[in-house]
Design goal:
The structure holds 2 protein chains of 2 kinds. Chain A is about 75% helix and about 0% strand. By secondary structure, chain A is mainly α. In chain A, strands 1-2 form a two-stranded antiparallel sheet. Chain A starts with a helix and ends in a 13-residue tail after the last helix. Chain B is mainly α. Chain B has 2 domains: about 290 residues, no CATH class; about 70 residues, no CATH class. In chain B, about 70% of the residues lie in helices and about 5% in strands. Chain B is built from 15 helices and 6 strands. Chain B has a two-stranded antiparallel ribbon with strand order 1-2. Chain B has a two-stranded antiparallel ribbon with strand order 3-4. In chain B, α3 packs antiparallel against α4, α4 packs across α6 and α6 packs antiparallel against α13. Chain B is globular. The chains are: A mainly alpha, B mainly alpha. Chains A and B meet through α3, α4, α5 and α12 of A and α2, α3 and α15 of B.
């Protein structure tokens, strides 16, 4: 395996970590106004992700940094090309990030309601944008011979990419609902379960629709044939199984299965891209690949040594932080603000 | 306005804004870690109240620092895609390492610290705030590794029209980095110290929560003395290094158009006429520039016009003179603010030795108004560093105008520039409101969950 392939996989891994972890964060933010009714309930729901969300977001920042280091051309084309989409994402992340911190500092109904709605919008917008971005990355975007994106924001918006956005948003909402059901008890847990039931069906249908559209809109079919291989099939099966586990009140298994769906779907997207990183819709020869977009072998080697040393440590202490806060949260106990 | 100018404004606005919050984060977390260490070793609940109170202010500040930091990292790709392609091979590495080694560390352990007061043994909780402090310091180190490369590129080769990393050791052994990093880090420590000193002084003037704010004030004065003196010493050495590595920046920061006489006088203030490339008025101290530049009362300092000729021979036609006014004045503002900080801290230390720290209301009031000084010094220092490097984005390697994204429409850059600026403004207002509110509310009431309430705490 070349270092280029290894780095493609490492960046895929960072996105998997990001979608898995920040996926339930976004889901919790989206569900906040619907399943938490009193101020205490809202605090409980926010505290389910309170100690984690910031570190979860770092997975995305690290993915961006890793792209910059390992595939500078990928970073440059993607970030300058998806300019307005990224701008909207940043606005959402800025609003959401400060809202978590600011809302608790003033005890006033309107103050808190305002920041709660910022959390809601700031949690809903990113998964929609990520879905749109991933759909476009699979289908291809206008990239010229000099690796520059020559389209506009409206090139990125289509029925296909919107289906992608809605499907990601629903998947994350489902993932978040199941996370809340694992981290709370009593009435919040019941509401989270019923939200998971409602959203789960829609998530399954829209995601299935998105997969069908992918066959029509991208070159998945011509590159891989009708049989997509084990990974996407298992992704689909795990999503179907969620319904069963929710009904059986096996929250842990249901959460595991939505996690599996997210992981396997992300792998599918990256497998579909490989060895390309940005597909040009103008000319296949102008696509960015793990070779023409990459840093030189020395740079990749240095980064490999550092990443393979540091990343296991990160996984270790981040895992430990989840273990520290493993107890369910309820409004009867003292709440941290 | 064209793409380039808008992109530069966006970078400037974001960087300056981001760097209001970052040094406070780095400095404050260090002070909080000291307070919690005192709590754990002395088993005195008041230090816990201190750590919690300053922790609350820290979090209000941290939130804005983090979210603007995301933008800071991504705007290289958004607005400076040609720059990213040209240097990404070298420049991307420290940014990626910053995320991996620093961002994960600080965000994970800050979460543990915030929510872990009742869930963790004291020493584990203490370790987590020290790990946050380590994370912020590592973050500064790696981002400055990237910046040092822009100031003084090393450890690369040019291959196929872009820079490729040739030696990672050279990149982190960059002499520029080893002046810049301690200078910035000590400046951040001073920022934290003056912030704690100012807020404490405000409360001491009102004679409220003396048991929390008196020791806070003492700690901040000690840290303030050490950091503000060291930052000046390192800064002086850094300027001497600049004489060698970026003589044009030094010449511009002295508004020195022509190579100076030997010994060189130092221009305290000047009226600069960049169009005529001369100064219409100068107030000078003889010998001083030679001493500043070489630690000896002789030696001339090269001027901009002579350096311009040398650079044209080396790099081809074009103007290599940075914006002189900004570079000259930002340097002076930074130095003036730094001197005031040293004097303020030293006076406090002297009062402390005489055990009269709380008696001079005038001094307490001054320390309240001295709070902005480090922020002014930080901002001015970065303006000098970054403006003084122009027209280069990477000194001697790539011009700023060649780094901009070629296909992003100017309208979109304008839209994001306006939106982000408005958002920054609103956040600043909310942040200031929350700061003032949290300061007025003061620390949590004593004994809320304490074992031994003790009001008579000797500082340290």
């Amino acid at each position: 395996m070349t270092l280029n392939t290894l780095w493609f996989m490492l960046i895929a891994l960072l996105f998997i970590g990001f979608f898995f972890l920040e996926g339930f964060d976004y889901g919790v933010g989206i569900l906040l106004p619907f399943i938490a009714r009193t101020d205490d309930e809202r605090r409980v729901v926010i505290n389910t992700i309170g100690p984690f969300w910031d570190a979860n977001e770092v997975w995305f920042i690290t993915a961006g940094g890793a792209m910059f280091a390992a595939f500078p051309n990928w970073y440059a084309t993607l970030f300058s090309g998806f300019y307005i989409a990224l701008f909207l994402l940043l606005i959402a992340l800025i609003g959401r990030g400060v809202a978590f911190e600011f809302r608790s500092k003033v005890e006033h109904v309107r103050w808190r309601r305002f920041w709660d709605s910022v959390i809601f919008v700031g949690s809903l917008l990113p998964p929609l944008l990520w879905g749109v971005a991933l759909a476009n990355m699979m289908r291809g975007v206008p990239i010229d011979a000099h690796m520059n994106f020559v389209g506009s924001f409206w090139n990125l918006i289509s029925l296909y990419s919107i289906a992608g956005g809605v499907s990601v948003a629903l998947l994350f909402t489902l993932h978040g609902a199941l996370f809340i059901s694992l981290r709370t008890d009593g009435v919040l847990q019941r509401r989270a379960r019923s939200a998971a039931m409602g959203v789960g069906a829609w998530a399954t249908v829209i995601t299935f629709l998105f997969v069908v559209l992918s066959y029509l809109e991208t070159d998945m079919f011509t590159r891989h044939g009708v049989d997509p291989g084990a990974v996407p099939i298992l992704a689909g099966l795990s999503l179907f199984s969620v319904q069963f586990f929710i009904r059986a009140k096996r929250d842990g298994w249901a959460f595991f299965m939505t996690g599996l769906t997210i992981i396997l779907s992300t792998i599918t997207v990256f497998m579909d891209l490989y060895p390309r990183v940005m597909v040009s819709s103008l000319n296949p020869a102008w696509s960015l690949t793990i070779y023409n977009a990459a840093s030189n072998p020395y740079s990749l080697k240095v980064m490999t040594i550092i990443a393979l040393t540091v990343l296991p440590l990160v996984l270790l202490y981040q895992g430990w932080s989840y273990w520290v806060f493993r107890k369910r949260i309820s409004a009867e106990h003292r709440l941290e603000y | 306005m064209d793409n380039l100018l808008l992109a530069r404004w966006q970078f400037g606005v974001t960087t300056v804004y981001h760097f209001f919050f970052v040094p406070l984060t780095i400095g404050l977390v260090f002070l909080i870690a000291i307070m919690e260490t005192l709590y754990v070793t002395k088993k005195n609940e008041n230090y816990k109240r201190m750590a919690k109170f300053w922790g609350k202010l820290f979090l209000i500040n941290f939130a804005v620092g983090v979210v603007t930091g995301i933008l800071q990292e991504f705007q290289f790709g958004m607005n400076w895609s040609n720059y990213s392609r040209f240097v990404g091979d070298v420049f991307g590495a420290p940014l990626a390492i910053e995320s991996l080694a620093a961002f994960f560390l600080e965000s994970t352990f800050l979460g543990v610290w915030m929510f872990g007061w009742d869930k963790l043994p004291k020493h584990v909780h203490l370790a987590s705030i020290w790990l946050v402090a380590l994370g912020t310091t590592l973050s500064a180190f790696w981002i400055l590794t990237a910046n040092a490369f822009m100031q003084h590129p090393v450890g690369y080769v040019i291959q196929g029209g872009h820079a490729e990393m040739a030696s990672f050791g050279a990149l982190i052994g960059n002499e520029q980095l080893w002046w810049e990093f301690p200078h910035v880090w000590l400046g951040a420590l001073a920022t934290g110290a003056f912030f704690v000193a100012g807020v404490s002084a405000y409360q001491l003037l009102r004679k409220r929560w003396l048991e929390v704010f008196h020791p806070s004030f003492v700690i901040s004065i000690i840290v303030g003395v050490v950091s503000s003196i060291l930052v000046a010493i390192v800064g002086h050495d850094q300027a001497q290094y600049l004489m060698v590595s970026q003589p044009m920046k030094m010449a511009a920061s002295e508004a020195l158009w022509h190579t100076s006489a030997d010994p060189a006088p130092w221009t305290v203030i000047a009226a600069i006429d960049p169009a005529q490339q001369r100064n219409t008025f100068e107030l000078q101290i003889p010998y001083a520039l030679s001493i500043l530049a070489y630690n000896q009362p002789h030696g001339s300092v090269p001027g901009m016009l002579e350096l311009q000729q040398q650079m044209q021979q080396k790099y081809g036609p074009g103007s290599y003179i940075p914006p002189v006014g900004v570079t000259f004045w930002s340097f002076r503002v930074m130095v003036a603010a730094g001197v005031l900080m040293i004097l303020s801290a030293l006076y406090g230390a002297w009062q402390m030795v005489r055990d009269k720290l709380l008696q001079s209301r005038r001094y307490l009031r001054w320390m309240l108004f001295a709070m902005p000084l480090p922020f002014i010094a930080n901002t001015a220092g970065w303006l000098m560093t970054e403006m003084g490097r122009q027209p280069w984005v990477v000194y001697g390697l790539e011009l700023t105008r060649d780094g901009v994204s070629p296909t992003v429409p100017a309208g979109e850059v304008l839209l994001t520039l306006i939106s982000f600026s408005v958002l920054y403004g609103l956040l600043a207002i909310v942040d200031a409101y929350l700061f003032v509110r949290a300061v007025r509310q003061g620390p949590e009431p004593d004994g809320e969950d304490s074992e031994v309430p003790d009001l008579n705490v000797a500082p340290l």
